[in-house]
Amino acid sequence: MCASFRSEEMCLAQLFLQSGSAYDCISELGEMGLVEFRDLNPSVSPFQRRFVSEIKRCEEMERILGYLLREIRKANIAVPEPEVSPVAPAPKHVLEIMEQLQRLEVELSEVAKNKEKLKRNLLELTEYTHMLRITHTFMHSRSRHEALGPQYEEFPSLEAESVAGCTGMQRLGAKLGFISGLIQRVKMEAFERMLWRVCKGYTILSYAEVDENLADLDTGEISKNVVFLISFWGDQIGQKVQKICDCYHCHLYPHPETDEERSDVMDSLRTRIQDLNNVLHRTEDYLKQVLHKASESAHSWVLQVKKMKAIYHILNLCSFDVTNKCLIAEVWCPVNDLTNLRSALGEGSRKGDATVPSFVNRIPSKDTPPTLLRSNKFTSGFQSIVEAYGVGDYREASPAPYTIITFPFLFAVMFGDLGHGVVMTLFALWMVLTEKSHKRKHSGNEIWSTFFEGRYIILMMGLFSIYTGLIYNDCFSKSLNIFGSGWNIKAMFREQQWTNETLQTNAVLTLDPNISGVFTGPYPLGIDPIWNMAVNRLAFLNSYKMKMSVIIGVVHMSFGVVLSVFNYLHFRQKFKLYLLFVPELLFLLCLFGYLVFMIFYKWLAFSARESRTAPSILIHFINMFLMQGNAMTPLYPGQMGLQVFLVAVALLCVPVLLLGKPLYLYWLHHGSKRLGVHRVCGYERVRRLSEDDLSPSIVHDEEEGLDDHPGRESSPKEFDFGDVFLHQAIHTIEYCLGCISNTASYLRLWALSLAHAQLSEVLWAMVLRVALRISSRLGVLVLAPVFSLFAVLTVSILLIMEGLSAFLHALRLHWVEFQNKFYSGTGVKFAPFDFSLLPSVFEQDGLL
Hints:
Layout: E1 10-18, H1 22-32, E2 36-38, H2 52-74, H3 91-140, H4 144-148, H5 158-171, E3 176-184, H6 188-199, E4 203-209, E5 214-215, E6 222-223, E7 225-233, H7 235-247, E8 251-253, H8 259-317, E9 319-320, E10 326-334, H9 338-351, E11 359-363, H10 380-389, H11 400-415, H12 418-433, H13 435-441, H14 446-453, H15 455-472, H16 489-496, H17 500-505, H18 537-570, H19 575-605, H20 617-626, H21 639-669, H22 676-690, H23 696-704, H24 721-745, H25 748-772, H26 778-818, H27 841-844
Antiparallel strand pairs: 1-10, 1-11, 2-10, 3-7, 3-8, 4-7, 5-6, 9-10
Helix pairs in contact: 1-8, 1-9, 2-3, 2-8, 3-8, 6-7, 10-11, 11-15, 11-25, 11-26, 12-15, 18-19, 18-24, 18-25, 19-21, 19-24, 21-24, 25-26
């Protein structure tokens, strides 16, 4: 079968790499992504492996690159991606890259330290300038109200206070002192309270806010600051004030005693600030030049270091031969890629100037190979849906190709609306047409990434929703009369002799299709639009969609059972065709296939006139199990005998399912001694395949003969009939009961379809119809906001919420009702060594 329908054939290969060219060979394999390496040193600690020092060197380079990228990001400099991804550097060039990165780190760290020191000095000078400017107003203001404004508490001027208090304090030998500085605005209230409590009124505090926001270099926050001036008497009080300022992390600056000294300090500060600004601008320009130059190579360095580190991790998985001149690696490789694998090893040997070329040797193995299913950008989304349930077993039939059609179809059955399907299709089509630009942006929004990765799924769901919307004749809860109704209303009025008085006196009139000339024929596509005006529309759609759900469900489940045939034939388990497939299919079709038959028979056998008196299919189906065929009028002659026969066949399938496989395996194991050798070998083959223990070596043994393999066990394993019977009993109970519950589970197609249609109708009637009813000019003004509300509710409720609900229900129908009929999903996914698939620590941190 095609590779998309079944996982590719894998083989276990042994790589013999010369020590000098092993690095280049692994590099070539990483670029091509062909093989998955196995660890040949599972008992060796990661810290005791051969290439630990090289990995530590790579981690040191990652640390330097992280520092470099953070500095580039602080400077708002873009890091361009190289047009062509660089290859892993040769081992002889690694030291050059390391020295270049270390030299760049030292240079950047020195420049960054100088810049931070200059900023800190500039901040201190700026604070000192604000302090001198504001305290000057304190010293020369006559009143506190004039200096600080009405929002601050009034204080007497410092000159008046000092003149009044100096006489009394000088008698005690006290000396007047000043402390000035800056404090954060949020700390000012507690600072003032602490001064009052500790100094007990022997201080005078004056403060005012700085009109400029200053940055704190330690935290990077921009905050409001307050300039304060504290006057005190006595050295002891001064020491207390000094300690309080230190506790509140105040920035203290010397306070000039005279105006001349203050002017000189201000002039000096202006000169120093101007000089610092010039030096700081030059430092920043130089730093940007260094970062610009580094940013041109930063992305290439990141890729090179990532590849180099990955290569050494792979080399740690290899083992050395006895001469320590050759590395041995074991890999899983697709059989179709063995030629590419050999060419990659040859190219690596050529780059490494190896005297002895590296080569590959295919070896037999009893281990289960990993599963590889190749996909493209269209099928990858559907493959992800399947693998979310479980990765398929090796060489097991994949549900993904069928899911491409069945998944959007079942979604559309629940979501079917022409208008909503068009909106969804246009959104998906926009993502598909602009996918290249979106891939280059690398959006970190997880929700958007989920939608973008499933753009082709959304496109298919939108297209199928358009189709089902046409079948339901539903577009934003309204019907489309494209081909004209099949009901002739004029003929109905003429035949029934209805008049205007009849229309005025009867709120509801019934259209009878049995009158000749009234019903001219079915609507060409979908449901007749006249049903949108009928009062019994919901009852009609209930019957139609419920029966449609049962038909789709039985067909879908039967298709899943049929797909199990491909697994049985491929794994050469022909006994399962007769002991599992045939009874499973008969059990399903004899019961629920017959239900589908009755639905179609009733549609075809009864006319519109007879439909009112036609018997109920549900009652007939219940009576089929109760064997009460005489209680109702039969649908067709011989119905009772056929139903008894179908129930008997379904009941007989149960013991075949329950005992067939265990007894067959028991017979193979405990055959007569005359046929013992062949039968035991046959049992061994069936046992291995039935336990999903298949590997390429077993496949070749089946083709070449079971007795030719030298490593095969001489005697089969002990057969445990109880264990086999228990597993088969669980499978039988699960399948037989599951046929009933799974068929009922498909009724969600009916329920969600009606719910979506009713929500759409409610939204139309309660929102948009309100504005459309206004016939005056005011209706034009009301229509715009009402339509905006209608559009928002349509997108948020009907498209997103209802779409997500239908998506999850379709997902459940595929996982439980469809895939469990033939898909085990207990395999291990093939994880090739591919540089493009390796995550980067810088991408996770958002630095790239």
